[in-house]
Amino acid sequence: MNSGSSKQNETPAAAAARIMRGVMQLGRGDKQGIDAFRNTPEALLAAIAPSAALFIVLALSEFVQGYNAVEITKILILVTALLTRLVVSQLMARFWSREAVWPRYATALLWSSWLPMVLSLIVLCVMQIIMPGMATSRSALAGVMIGVELYELWLAWFVARAGLEITGGKAALLVVLINGAVAALYLIAALLPPHYNALKEIMGPLPKP
What we know:
78% helix
């Protein structure tokens, strides 16, 4: 009774600290980090909220600047990719009879997905301070991107294994299915008008120093 009451009376600061603790634990390979996330629809909606807010800001920015088909497509792809991750993972959770713990897994996945992004920014900032020349090197940036991407794949695998309580093989399959579905979205966007090419955008020309 006291445990349930404490959860209901949890302050926003305490909730944020709990989530950050869980993300850091999962990020370093500690399965106990999954216990920091609630297995409720409300917790999942709270995890979606930051991404939703970002999408709204991007959409309003485009509305103010004027219609740009490529940028609008980019925002729509980001929204669709987020929903695709949730839909594919829920379908597989249902197939494996793990749907009961899917909200907790999805919540942990969404929160932990910010970690690779933060780490990449930290690495780039450190490079800029210690080795300014490398910070503008295409090969160095490509190395950082590959390293972050590999870590992101591992983290997604680990969260799936811990969150859905499945084997490593099933977790790997889930990561492949999710990323395959998202990759298909970006391929379709590149092939159809207005031909938004995310890879070309990422690997575009470096800014001049």
